TrEMBL record:
Protein name, entry field: Kinase-like domain-containing protein
Comp. bias intervals (Acidic residues): 278-313
SUPFAM superfamilies: Protein kinase-like (PK-like) (SSF56112)
Keywords carried by this UniProt record: Kinase, Transferase
Keyword Mitochondrion listed: no
Domain Protein kinase: start-end pairs: 362-534
Species of origin: Rhizophagus clarus
Any one Gene Ontology molecular-function term assigned to this protein's record: ATP binding
Gene3D superfamilies assigned: Transferase(Phosphotransferase) domain 1
Alphabetical list of Pfam families matching this protein: Pkinase
Length: 534
């Protein structure tokens, strides 16, 4: 009997398309690198539940795939990359597969959908590798102007996951539940498992999503938040990329189809609104600029946008407290663990000392812009409204260090010029054990977005940079995008402030300071400067 060879020219039905068995790529050796060794432990560890009926329901749902209309070309994987190494290669292969199969169906829905990079949806919070989003029209979707996010995907290399979850061992939900309760000597392994789940869950929470995916491409886990209690999460058994359709089991692509239909029909899961206990719990937290430990966190202290603070706070006790934080605030990373300890290491506070805030304590407003750490949003926390930046806690060590460095600068050398020449630091801490955040007062628009910057405002920008230098700080990123103007009434009363101190550092070099001033004058089109115009 001759083996039947599929006709590559024959068009496929939707059902045939989703029953294609995907090839398993080769794995190249990679060196795994982690970021933080621990997150805040100030919230309870809650067990996750097994999504027990996922595979059965996915198989049942597969029968709804169209089996009559042959309209799809058979995808050609012969020219595709056939090996996986670092995380980026997993991301590329996964999106290539989605483009070859799933997206061909999704773009023809009434509200077209697409799997793609996070840039498809400008309002995405955090930095998930991939998202699925929808738009009002296909043209809008193709332009990267999606109107709604439906699900997120977090990517990890199979080489790393296989060390933590070897074939034949515990599945992810069981391994996570063991990790959060274990007290044995497998600390590093358990922490990695905890981080993977919390990071994926964190992206779902901050984007108000019910559904998410954690995948290595070789293996995929599907996540779902409970409808009645969004803090409860269900994780499916692992589904392998080459899982075949059988009379009793769905293929991998059919599992994707089931997850896609669920998140199309019911994508949103809002966290519960904040309670009085959420607000009162914050009263003992010191993660507040100028906080004396008695922050009542009510709506009566929200006038941060337009107060008349002259910034002259050097003599008060809260400055001394904040200065101590600036010296000791630190985060320990895996790479730092390998370095020899110095005498100052004993003074360091770990990230564990930062307060963890639940997502339901935040109210999010409009997106204000984009930076290296992702989108910046208007947000309200404990009655304080400002600009919120979030940095993934478990992903990019450099961005994490930048955010912590910015917090240090606000708490230390820039403490007495806040609101006058810089925004006011309102809050900082850990968000849902998945992000570091910093909330600063709103500052208007950047020089880069205005074409009518006055000479007076240019001189105020120079004056602000000189004030920063006078405190021994090099800004480190002199750009028009980092100079903000708040014109409350007129240009004659405008305030000019500097933002983004992630690259700032202490210096005593007048040469370095002069270099920044020269660059600023060049950007402003000024050969020199005199006194600010009144």
């Amino acid at each position: 009997m001759e083996l039947e060879i599929p006709d590559s020219n024959r068009l496929l039905t939707e059902r045939e398309l989703y029953q294609i068995v995907l090839p398993t790529p080769l794995l190249l050796s990679v060196k795994s690198v982690d970021t933080t060794i621990s997150a805040s432990r100030k919230v309870p560890n809650i067990s996750v539940l097994s999504w027990d009926d996922f595979l059965a329901e996915a198989f049942k749902k597969s029968s709804s795939l169209d089996a009559n209309n042959s309209i799809y070309k058979r995808p050609d994987f012969s020219t595709s990359m056939n090996f996986l190494s670092v995380e980026d290669s997993v991301t590329d292969m996964f999106i290539d597969t989605m483009n070859s199969i799933n997206n061909r169906r999704l773009i023809h829905l009434q509200s077209p959908e697409n799997w793609g990079k996070r840039y498809l949806f400008k309002g995405v919070k955090g930095q998930p590798e991939l998202i699925r989003c929808s738009a009002d029209s296909m043209d809008q979707l193709k332009k990267g102007d999606a109107s709604r996010i439906l699900a997120i995907i977090e990517i990890k290399p199979e080489q790393l996951i296989n060390e933590l979850l070897p074939d034949g061992g515990l599945d992810l939900h069981a391994a996570y539940n063991k990790a959060i309760t274990s007290s044995d000597d497998m600390y590093t392994q358990h922490e990695r498992i905890i981080k993977m789940v919390r990071q994926t869950f964190g992206y779902m929470v901050v984007n108000d999503l019910r559904y998410g995916i954690l995948t290595t491409y070789i293996r995929t886990w599907f996540f779902q938040r409970d409808r009645d209690n969004p803090n409860i999460i269900y994780i499916s058994p692992a589904v392998r990329i080459n899982q075949n359709h059988t009379p009793t089991h769905a293929s991998f692509l059919e599992c994707m189809y089931y997850h896609e239909t669920l998140s199309t029909d019911d994508s949103t899961a809002h966290s519960s609104p904040p309670t009085d206990s959420d607000y009162n719990d914050d009263a003992e937290d010191g993660n507040d600029e100028g906080n004396d430990g008695n922050d009542e966190c009510d709506d009566n202290n929200s006038n941060d946008e337009d107060d008349d603070d002259d910034g002259n706070n050097e003599g008060d006790s809260s400055y001394k407290s904040s200065k101590r934080k600036w010296v000791t605030l630190n985060i320990t990373t895996q790479s730092m663990e390998k370095k020899p300890k110095t005498q100052n290491d004993n003074e360091s506070e770990n990230l564990e000392d930062m307060k963890n805030y639940d997502y339901n304590q935040f109210s999010f407003g409009d997106m204000l812009g984009n930076g290296r750490t992702g989108a910046v949003f208007a947000a309200k926390l404990c009655g304080k409204t400002g600009a919120l930046k979030m940095t993934d806690l478990y992903k990019n060590e450099y961005l994490l260090q930048e955010t912590l460095n910015e917090i240090k600068m606000y708490l230390g050398p820039l403490r007495d010029i806040q609101y006058m020449y810089t925004p006011k630091l309102l809050k900082f801490g850990v968000l849902h054990e998945a992000f570091i955040f910093i909330l600063t007062s709103l500052c208007g628009k950047s020089f880069a977005k205005l074409d009518d910057v006055t000479e007076r405002e240019k001189h105020l920008a120079i004056e602000g940079l000189q004030a920063i230098h006078a405190r021994g700080v090099m800004h480190g990123d002199v750009r028009l995008e980092n100079i903000m103007i708040n014109r409350s009434e007129s240009t004659s009363k405008s305030r000019v402030r500097w933002i983004d101190f992630g690259w700032s550092k202490m210096s005593r070099s007048s040469k370095n300071f002069n270099r920044e001033l020269t660059e600023l004058r060049r950007l402003l089109g000024m050969a020199g400067h005199g006194n600010p115009k009144k």
